Amino acid sequence: MKKRIALYGIISLTLLLFLFGTYKLMNARTYQLFGGLTSHVETNQKAVALTFDDGPTKNVEKILPLLDKYHAKATFFVTGKELKKNPKLGKKIAESGHQIGNHTYSHQRMIFKKPSFIKQEIEMTNQLIRKTGYKGEIDFRPPYGKKLIGLPYYLKKHHIETITWSLEPDTYYSSVLDKVNYVNKHVKPGAIILLHPMYDNTGNELKTIEGILDSLSKKGYQFVTVNKLQKLHHQ
């Protein structure tokens, strides 16, 4: 009886450790099992990357002039579904010299998915991105940052870089001032900043973007694409 209880205890502990490990791996921002992942760049250059997830939506038409005002380049991680509905917005992003990344077609969590589903989600979106006229490297950002084995394996096989982030003001704060203060407090050269302005109808995300652009510009920071930031590694 005691041996059986001990065995059950070992099995339960093993299962808990497995589940905990799976959870940590799924949500990790700085590592994955296969392929390249960038959450920030080690550099002495005062440069950061602004990244926008989802869309493109009509808010792009407000974001682009704001970026131009501060001579900033950004990276837009778009979904294929929205890009298909708004191809002209995708073309405007490309024509403005910004980077376009892949955020899947349907924005589903890319865990426990069949290889065929992963392939379709990424390749359909890549095709739509190319139709915008964007010529640069297409990086990938998993929805909600979640990944396990199948997704990283596919990305490695196809030489696609995973891009996460080091600063996420939207996760911790709701007010514009708090978000801007958070970024100012924690920013360092090589940071990748995640924002979600595409579905905001209040204008607060736009104010957050301008607050970050203004305050970091005054500190001497430049805003570059993720690909440009990666080239500053160890410089």
Give a structural overview:
By secondary structure, the chain is of the alpha/beta class. Helices cover 47% and strands 11% of the residues. The strands form two sheets. Strands 2, 3, 4, 6 and 7 form a five-stranded parallel β-sheet that branches. The protein has a two-stranded parallel sheet with strand order 1-5. α2 (60-69) runs parallel beside α9 (204-218) and α8 packs parallel to α9. The chain is globular, with a radius of gyration of 20 Å.
Low-confidence stretches: none
- Report the strand count: 7
Alpha-beta content class? alpha/beta
The portion of residues assigned to helices is 40-55%
Radius of gyration: 20 Å
Termini separation (Å)? 64 Å
* Percent of sequence in beta strands: 5-15%
Ordered list of secondary-structure elements with their pairings:
Elements: H1 2-27, E1 37-38, E2 47-53, H2 60-69, E3 74-78, H3 80-85, H4 87-95, E4 99-102, H5 115-131, H6 150-157, E5 162-163, H7 169-172, H8 176-186, E6 192-195, H9 204-218, E7 222-223, H10 226-230
Parallel strand pairs: 1-5, 2-3, 2-6, 2-7, 3-4
Helix pairs in contact: 2-9, 8-9
Summary keywords:
about 240 residues; five-stranded parallel β-sheet; alpha/beta; 10 helices
